[in-house]
Amino acid sequence: MSETLTLRRPDDWHLHLRDGAMLKAVTPHSADYGRAIIMPNLVPPVVTGAQAAAYRDRILAALPNGAVLDPQMTLYLTDTTDPADVVSAFRSGVIRAVKLYPAGATTNSASGVTDVARVRPVLEAMAEAGVTLCVHGEVTDPSIDIFDREAVFIDRVLAPLRDATPGLRVVMEHVTTKDGVDYVRDGGEDIAATITTHHLVINRNAILAGGIRPHYYCLPVAKREEHRLALRQAATSGEGRFFLGTDSAPHPDTAKLQPCGCAGCFTAPNTMSILAHVFEQDGALDRLEAFTSLNGAAFYRLPPNEDRITMVRHDDPIAFPETIDVGDETVTIFDPGFPLHWQIEAP
Ligand SMILES: NC(=O)N[C@@H](CC(=O)O)C(=O)O
Ligand SMILES: [Zn+2]
Ligand SMILES: [Zn+2]
């Protein structure tokens, strides 16, 4: 008999679904999650409550019949965000969180915050109303080495921001360093971190293994092996401050395979299979549920999903396609570099 694992339905606390044809193609791959925090970095970005509500309707329309996904919307913080709009969108249930992108830090972040001082009134209103701030934690100073930008962000931006705004709840998105893990672990009740699928699997060498591997390029860029191991330890520890945010970030292959290719790994289709493998390897299958289905909900002060999924371990590796089609384009699915045996059992 095959081994099985039953766990509460997972949530994805950091997901890019894009818009238009891409939205239609990728959304079904996240349809079996209970909830997902939907990133607002569209072009143009989702900056008002009304835009978030309209985007949520487009997502719901892209879900297949029988899907359970309940999209949790976010607003893209800009220098001119209106605190009253944020609070009213939160209180009316339109949004779950607000996303801070330092201007220029990552894909579609040109309208991001240029100086935290400019958004101080919004942050204060958020702390007061209990709205979570999700943060892309990298400085954009070109003189800081790209591999140090997360650690420097903590010192220069995140710690002062939190000191100046007591009570603000913050999620350090896609944490990639031991420095980030340590900061979150010691940071008190109001901070947590998402960890992606791919950062548990690759270190920075994977991007340059025998040649340049654009599909392993994402931001924050993968770091040294010691950092990957710190992330593995945090994710598999069961500690409540760490939870799954896939950061599944689809781009057409034509945009990835360029002299200046864009950042992002598309992990929605095979994340649960990869995570089961990773947790099994680390002897932590009994803590997978905490990472995927309990800790994030608890941080967001939501009940965990009531229903369950079952994963089955097949003796023979299961096959995933290399790509999915999006109109005339393809999007490459993240290749973990090892065979996958765990699969979500069809309901
Ligand atoms: N992670 C990435 O490499 N890319 C994300 C943006 C982000 O989450 O920083 C994207 O939108 O493509
Ligand atoms: Zn980001
Ligand atoms: Zn992201």
TrEMBL record:
Domain of life: Bacteria
Entry protein name: Dihydroorotase
E.C. numbers: 3.5.2.3
Gene3D superfamilies reported for this sequence: Metal-dependent hydrolases
Regions annotated as coiled coil: none
Gene Ontology molecular function: dihydroorotase activity
Residues holding Zn(2+) 1: 14, 16, 99, 247
Binding site for substrate: 16-18, 41, 136, 219, 251, 263
InterPro entries given in the database record: Amidohydro-rel (IPR006680), DHOdimr (IPR004721), Dihydroorotase_CS (IPR002195), Metal_Hydrolase (IPR032466)
UniProt keyword list: Hydrolase, Metal-binding, Pyrimidine biosynthesis, Zinc
Matching Pfam families: Amidohydro_1 (PF01979)
Positions of modified residues (N6-carboxylysine): 99
Cofactor annotation comment: Binds 2 Zn(2+) ions per subunit.
SUPFAM superfamilies referenced in this protein's UniProt entry, alphabetically: Metallo-dependent hydrolases
Family designation: Belongs to the metallo-dependent hydrolases superfamily. DHOase family. Class II DHOase subfamily.
Cofactor(s) essential for the protein: Zn(2+)
Chain sites annotated for binding Zn(2+) 2: 99, 136, 174
Entry annotation: catalytic residues: 247
Reactions catalysed according to its record: (S)-dihydroorotate + H2O = N-carbamoyl-L-aspartate + H(+)
Major enzyme class: hydrolase
Function: Catalyzes the reversible cyclization of carbamoyl aspartate to dihydroorotate.
Subunit structure: Homodimer.
Pathway assignment: Pyrimidine metabolism; UMP biosynthesis via de novo pathway; (S)-dihydroorotate from bicarbonate: step 3/3
Domain Amidohydrolase-related: residue ranges: 12-304
UniProt key word Membrane: no
Keyword Transcription: no
